[in-house]
# Entry
Amino acid sequence: MNKKITSAIFTVACLGICIIPFAGMAVAPSNEAVGNEQKTTLPSIKTEDGGFNEKYMQQLGDYFSDHYALRPQIMSVDAEIQSKVFGVSNIDSITTGKNNWLYYSSTLDNYLGRNLMSTRKIFNTKHNLEITQKYLASQNIDFLFTIAPNKNTLYPDNMPYYYGKKESTGSNLNSFISSLDKDKLYYCDLLTPLKNSDEVLYLEQDSHWNNKGALLAYNEILDTLGKEHNDYSDAQATRTKSFYGDLGKMIYPATQKPEYNFEYDINPTYTYVTPTKSVEDAIINTQNNKASGRLYMYRDSFGNALLPYFANAYGSAYFTKAFPINLALEVGMQKSDTVVFEIVERNLDWFAESPPVMPALEVTVPSYKETTDSVQSLKAEISQVNMQYVSITGSVDSKICSDNSEFLLLVSDKDNKKRTFEAFTISTEDTDYGFQAYIPAEYLNSESVDISVIIKNDNEYSALKSQNANILQADI
# Structure
């Protein structure tokens, strides 16, 4: 009898514990987002046209998963147990390391030397940046590209032991740096000074550098550009334990503890032109009457800590996270004289997949031989990012290319004259031998365009069979 009573009490207790998250939603639902997640809204049983919402139960389940009572506390307890006892993470996007260090799981392939960018994809990234630099130079604008290293590239010692064996010693960052041609791309190396520093310049429970690491990056970039600037070597730095990292917020939403960061006594001389809420805003524009120069900077979240330094260094600074980068339009509107692209190592391939939106550079038609080969795909459409351009995309057979093949597009304009444009080299899910060029729409007929792809292999040019493509309207 006592065993039956004990079992009944245990069963009731378990059921009571399980029902608390559901029942508690009536009085204390979890409405705050954890980390970078987007909260779901309570679904309606009816659709907008009055019909039955067939996905109602699925959406209701998603809503419960986001809003059940005590969600942050339950998530944190589960994470603490799994990380402290078993040394693993309860969130796929986060890797739990040693000594309370956290890493983005999206960096694992690069860390382990697996599924790396192909030689061709590395070339596409570099080539597209070189074309970007060439275009900006034609507008008398300086350009610089830089990469923020992944956290485990600089600090692998706190990665979990079960990732000790690597598939190769390669990495995307090292491959990219090794591929650079001297004097072709203006590149600022941040890997070397960050790696050579005696101090730890990244945060333990965040994916980014600390403020001292950001200051080092700022000085390296402006030193490379040759711009006179305050290096803040005499600025007072206070080490305070008050910073809450982005990864820590995601995995320990209720139990996260602060960590040390540096706070610099810097007098901001800039003001915001945009209605800026924080340095995390997608677009920020600043003005500074005590500085000179007009900066345009594409930056990701690593640029959050850089922004105050750069805003202090330039008379006008425009910071954007929008991708693909609407370069020609925005640089023209801002009248920028300097352009900086900053991106984290794990996203380096973005520039092979979505190069900046800008007019394709027109070049002299080279001497070429005609072939019977055809493109594998071809598409022309009004660009959704900037409707001043027709985006011409396609791909060619890799068998007729090399790892460093370049593409030109021979296009018939509205006066039926041939014009030749330099194309970006593009990587897609299917191929690394794609191409893209943004042709000003004013050059072309509104309905269709005749195109021939010219492949440059070393110093030899071969033209594929000409094809006609209908110009599709932007789907906006």
User: Anything to note?
Assistant: The chain has a mean pLDDT of 89. The longest helix spans residues 2-23. The longest strand covers residues 448-457. Residues 362-472 form a domain with the Immunoglobulin-like fold (CATH 2.60.40.10).
